[in-house]
Each structure stands twice: as structure tokens, then as C-alpha cells.
Amino acid sequence: MRSLIQRFAPDGRIARTRWLGEGLVAAGLGFGVLAVIGLVLWTTSPFPDSGAGGALRVVAGLWLLAHGAELVRAETLSGVPAPIGLTPLLLTALPCWLLHRAVRVALIGARDPALGPRAALWVSAGYLLPAVPAALYTLGGPIGVHPPSALLAMPLLTCAVALASAVSVLGWPAPWPDPYRLAAAGRAAVAATAAVVGAGALLAAGALVLHADAAQRTFGQLSGPWSGQIAVLLLGLALAPNAAVWAAAYGLGPGFTLGAGSLLAPLPFGSGTGEGPRLPAFPLLAVAPGGTGGGWAVWAVAAVVPAAGIGVLAHFTARGAVRSGSGPAATALTALLAAVGCGVVLSALATLAGGPLGTAALAEFGPDPLLTGAAGAAWGVLGGVPLALALRAWQLRTAGPWQLLTGRLWRWRAARAERLEPVPGAGQPPKARRRWRRERNRGRNRGRGTDPTRPGGRWPRRRRKGRPDIEPLGPGTISRLRRLLRPEPSGAAAGQPPSAVPRTPDVPFDQETDRSARP
């Protein structure tokens, strides 16, 4: 592609043309993957409703739905068009990864952070070019796109992902006040969000294992042919990240709704009936809880979600603070920014993971974005900031935990012994106390012998802790060691005088071992 751009593009526009081309390639790859899956399912279906054109219209609608656009199903039993606003997050992951890859390829060799936003906007423009014909193509099919939602959601998601990718490649541009703190807070926020969603995925998987029989029954009721069962399986896999986000919202406290004004949460938080609605047959919906509350067991299991987010946020914040040498105030500010960022990302995920699936009772599905984001930010502020400060203080300690414990015990025992030990000579005049100390010292030295070989005639004192066992090497020590370790001559060589040691650059001069210097 680069050679073609250099051949046909004018001078000075090669970089912008290449950025635009990377966006076009990313959009084509994403649409192509969905088109292959859709055409394979249409080919293997025993009852195709329309031709290949209808299948491609459905694929175009799914591609737009993956970017957050809302679809409208015109053919309903009541004759009223039904909106479809619930985005399968696994489909959203594909265009996000392709956009990130396109931005990274476009910024190969770039070093200036100010170049990142421009490249991201050009890549986004190239990516959005095929969206206009795709939206127009779906309008004549059974499932068409809602134009206002497409005009709002697609550019917002595309530009946000492209700019975030540019910042991750080149860093924050110069106008930002503190790019290092923003980068550290961003890493902590992304890690905390991943921990919260991962804990929610564990909750959803555990519920699916506990209700495996009900999920299997609903799986068999939806479709009989094997091609239909494969389509249901692919739909369940595409909605699996949505179930993780719903379970994360359940663990954070706000919960989620499954239509008909219901509320499924561990606590009666917000407005809702608190009763589980009558759900359609679908494997992921068969594992939903029955309403609000559930006792201490449910609360303990749900507490895993905020605990995971708080722990990961505090760990990343404290590690960055220790590496950069930040103080307590800077660490608290970074943790606060990370908590707010985690709340914003969770709110965006809740917006994509929920939405309408129809009218009346199916008008609301999924968690509330505002409540979910506020709960995530509140858990991060209340638990993440104090834990980050505690972990920073713990990582900056000068002694290990066992040393700290034993040192405190030793100091406590010494202080207790000093308080309990009676002071000799208490209540006596100073002269009497000094006399008692002299007699005590004289009694300590009584019975000690003298050593005439030692200077001063005293026995050597006890070696202090930390003093080496041997004396330091002095002048001539190496020579004495050489004479002691030299083998004794035997036989005829015993009466011969020792030969001189030649002085060469490799052998250092030593007056005591050099026999040639002696007469």
C-alpha cells in the first residue's frame, strides 16, 4: 500500500493518504469477517428467508450495531417497528482491535506525541467512509439502521478508540498539565475496569454452571436443525461479555433490569419492582437471579466484584507512585483520577451492554449507565484511595514484616522490663548511688584473670556484633602466607640456594620474595 500511495499521492500528502488508507482497510476487514460468518449461516440454513442480498443487509446492520448504532426491526406481529439497541460486545471488540491496529501501523516511525491526534482523526475519517453506504444499504431490508443513532454513536466510538490508541503509542501531547500522572491514572483505571468485568465474568460463569440444566433446555427449545443451534451458540458467545458487564453491575450494587420495570440487584437500590420478570427462552437469561436481596451468601459472592476492582486499582497506583517517587498527596490524587476514569469506562460499557430489544416490556434491558458508573467511582474513591496509600507505605518500608514484628516485641519487652525492674539506690543521695555503681563494677571484674601476652594484661573482650573475626591485612601479610604455603625442598634440591624470581610485567615486585635483591 505504501508504494501505491507514494506513486499516486502528491508530494506532502503521503502521510495523510496513508492514514486514510489504514482506516479504510480496517473497516473492510471488520465488515468482511462478519460477511463471511453471515453468508456461511445463510448457506447452511434449511429455510432461508431471502437471498444473498438480504443476508448482506443483515450483516451490514450487525456491523453498524457493533459500533453502538440502533437498529429497527420493521416486520413484527403487532405491526409496530421494534428497536434493537443492545450491542453484542464481542462484535464491538473486533472493530476496536482493528482500529487500534490501524493507528499503530499508521504511527510507525513517529516520535512526536503531537502527531498522534492528527493521525487518529485521519484514520477515523477513513474508517467512517464505508459507514455511509452501509447505513443506506440496510434501509431497504427487514432490519434497518436508525440514522440519528448511527450519526452519533459511530463517530463517537471510532474517534474515542483511535485517540486512545494514539495516546497509548506516543503518549499524551504537550498541552496536558501532568502527562505522567494522567498516564498512571489511565493504566490504573483500565486495569481496575478489567478486574471488575473479570470478576463479573466469574460470577456469570458460576451462575451458568449452577443453572446448566435450565440453560440446556432453553438451548434445545430455540432451534432444531444443527445450523440453527450453531447460530444460537454464536449469538450466546457474542453476548457473553454483556453478561459479564451485567454481573459486574450486580456486584457493584445497582444491578440490572430485564424489562417490565424489574430490578435484579443484591440490595433494593434504585427504582424497580424487585421481582424477576417472565423471560423468553435463552441460555444466558436462564441464569438470571430471581430479584433483589438473597441473604449474606449472595452479598458475600457479590462483594468479590468491588474487592477485585479496589485491589487492582490500589496496586497499580501504589506501584507507579513508588517507581516515580510520588508523595502521599500525589498518590491520593492519582488514585482519585483512576477511580473517576474507572467509573467513566464502566458507564460506557453499561451503555453498550444494555438497551431496548423491543417495545413495552422489552424497552429496557441491562444496567443503568449512570448508576453503574457512579457505583464504580464510589467504590474506587472509598476503598481504592486509602488502600493505595497503605500499599505505598508498605512498599517503602525499610524492614521486612518479621523484622518489624520482632523489633516491636523486643522494644516492648525491654520497656516493660525497665518499668518493672526496681532501681537500686532509689531514694539515696547521689554519692551513695555512685558508690553502689563502683562496687557493682568492681564485683563484675572480680575473678577475672590476666593474660600477660595481651596489652594491658587483660583478657580479650567479647567481640561485638558486626566486627569481623579476623584482623585486616597489613603490609607483608601476603609474603608471609607465600612462605608458609611454599613446599619444603627435598633431596638434592634441599642444599641448593633458592633461585631468583624473575621480575616481569606479569609478576609484581615483592622485596621479601625477590631473592635477587639479596646478597
TrEMBL record:
<feature type="transmembrane region" description="Helical">
    <location>
        <begin position="120"/>
        <end position="139"/>
    </location>
</feature>
<feature type="transmembrane region" description="Helical">
    <location>
        <begin position="296"/>
        <end position="318"/>
    </location>
</feature>
<dbReference type="Pfam" id="PF19877">
    <property type="entry name" value="DUF6350"/>
</dbReference>
<feature type="transmembrane region" description="Helical">
    <location>
        <begin position="184"/>
        <end position="210"/>
    </location>
</feature>
<dbReference type="InterPro" id="IPR045931">
    <property type="entry name" value="DUF6350"/>
</dbReference>
<feature type="compositionally biased region" description="Low complexity">
    <location>
        <begin position="487"/>
        <end position="498"/>
    </location>
</feature>
<feature type="transmembrane region" description="Helical">
    <location>
        <begin position="370"/>
        <end position="391"/>
    </location>
</feature>
<keyword id="KW-1133">Transmembrane helix</keyword>
<keyword id="KW-0812">Transmembrane</keyword>
<feature type="region of interest" description="Disordered">
    <location>
        <begin position="421"/>
        <end position="519"/>
    </location>
</feature>
<feature type="transmembrane region" description="Helical">
    <location>
        <begin position="230"/>
        <end position="252"/>
    </location>
</feature>
<keyword id="KW-0472">Membrane</keyword>
<feature type="transmembrane region" description="Helical">
    <location>
        <begin position="330"/>
        <end position="350"/>
    </location>
</feature>
<protein>
    <submittedName>
        <fullName>DUF6350 family protein</fullName>
    </submittedName>
</protein>
<feature type="compositionally biased region" description="Basic residues">
    <location>
        <begin position="431"/>
        <end position="447"/>
    </location>
</feature>
<feature type="transmembrane region" description="Helical">
    <location>
        <begin position="151"/>
        <end position="172"/>
    </location>
</feature>
<feature type="transmembrane region" description="Helical">
    <location>
        <begin position="20"/>
        <end position="42"/>
    </location>
</feature>
